[in-house]
């Protein structure tokens, strides 16, 4: 990958989506290749190098999820973003559990899509961080070896489980961690369905790390899917946007959608 050009493979059976994506992505410096089926995507990915894949879930043939599974066999680190419909929460969770890096919900704006694509590419090229390496994002610093957390240099007292949740999320900053994956990491596989239990801990954790727990900037909810901890780039973008909602993330409760409807968004029926 060069500093200026990101090669992206768009896999979507809807010609209107592909036509809508190519001009803005090309104008923003992306090198765009299009295919309409998962089978063709697998063929081209085996002979050409790409920096990112946009993969629709609902396609004829083998479909998006099976395409994702096969991609991960020979390209485990290639950033793959799933394109899915607004009510496809189960598809989002399944895709993330199968190795998708992120998802974008139709209809979506180009700004949101490009931000997530760049973030996924940036993460895959970032230096590999060990589990015991300190993590510092914004004003929050977490030191695994000491099981300590500070904010603005002041120590924050966390319970053992609160620390484990925060460590799991901060070590994957910028990426959504599904409820099941987070519950399994902290409590074990037997608790992977206890979402309400997890939400109780997250509410308490937000009270300790956020200025306004009702409008978090660090610990964000991906509605019906999971949580993600904002990375440094996301924090910068949030500050630049001031009070403008960031599309796709909820800063309220798990049942509240964030961001205004975008009448020019790609993917409207």
Strand portion: 15-25%
CATH architecture field of the largest domain: 3-Layer(aba) Sandwich
The helicity comes to: 25-40%
Shape: globular
- How far apart the termini lie comes to 34 Å
Count, helices? 9
Taking pLDDT < 50 over at least 5 consecutive residues as the criterion, the unreliable ranges are 245-264
Domain module tally: 2
CATH H-level superfamily of the largest domain: Response regulator
Short synopsis of the structure:
This protein has 269 residues and is α/β, with parallel strands linked by helices. The protein contains nine helices and twelve strands.
Q: What is the topological layout?
A:
Layout: E1 6-11, H1 15-27, E2 30-35, H2 38-47, E3 52-56, H3 63-74, E4 80-85, H4 89-97, E5 102-106, H5 110-124, E6 135-137, E7 140-143, E8 148-151, E9 154-155, H6 160-170, E10 177-178, H7 179-187, H8 195-209, E11 219-222, E12 226-229, H9 232-241
Parallel strand pairs: 1-2, 1-3, 3-4, 4-5
Antiparallel strand pairs: 6-7, 7-8, 8-9, 10-12, 11-12
Any overview of this molecule?
The chain has helices spanning 15-27, 38-47, 63-74, 89-97, 110-124, 160-170, 179-187, 195-209, 232-241; strands at residues 6-11, 30-35, 52-56, 80-85, 102-106, 135-137, 140-143, 148-151, 154-155, 177-178, 219-222, 226-229. β11 (219-222) and β12 form a beta hairpin. The strands form three sheets. Strands 2-1-3-4-5 form a five-stranded parallel β-sheet, with helices on both faces. A four-stranded antiparallel β-sheet has the order 6-7-8-9, with helices on one face. The chain has 269 residues and is α/β, with parallel strands linked by helices. The chain folds into two domains: 6-124, Rossmann fold; 135-241, Orthogonal Bundle (Arc Repressor Mutant, subunit A). α6 (160-170) packs across α8. The chain contains nine helices and twelve strands.
């Amino acid at each position: 990958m060069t500093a200026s050009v990101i090669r992206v493979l768009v896999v979507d059976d809807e010609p209107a989506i592909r036509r809508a994506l190519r001009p803005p992505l090309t104008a923003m410096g992306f090198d765009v290749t299009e295919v309409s089926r998962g089978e063709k995507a697998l063929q081209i990915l085996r002979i050409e190098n790409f920096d990112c894949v946009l993969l629709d879930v609902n396609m004829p043939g083998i479909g998006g999820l099976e395409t994702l599974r096969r991609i991960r066999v020979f390209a485990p680190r290639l950033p793959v973003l799933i394109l899915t419909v607004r009510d496809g929460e189960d598809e989002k969770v399944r895709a993330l559990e199968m190795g998708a890096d992120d998802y974008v919900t139709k209809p979506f704006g180009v700004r949101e899509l490009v931000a997530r694509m760049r973030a996924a590419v940036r993460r895959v090229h970032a230096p590999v961080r060990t589990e015991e390496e300190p993590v510092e994002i914004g004003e929050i610093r977490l030191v695994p070896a000491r099981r300590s957390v500070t904010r603005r240099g002041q120590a924050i007292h966390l319970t053992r489980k609160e620390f484990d949740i925060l460590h799991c999320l901060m070590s994957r900053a910028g990426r959504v961690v599904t409820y099941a994956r987070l519950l399994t990491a902290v409590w074990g596989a037997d608790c992977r369905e206890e979402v309400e239990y997890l939400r109780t801990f997250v509410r308490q954790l937000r009270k300790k790390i956020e200025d306004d727990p009702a409008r978090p900037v660090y610990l964000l909810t991906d509605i019906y899917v999971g949580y993600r901890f904002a990375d440094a780039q996301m924090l910068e973008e949030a500050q630049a946007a001031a009070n403008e909602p960031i599309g796709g993330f909820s800063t309220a409760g798990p049942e509240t959608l964030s961001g205004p409807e975008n009448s020019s968004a790609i993917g409207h029926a």
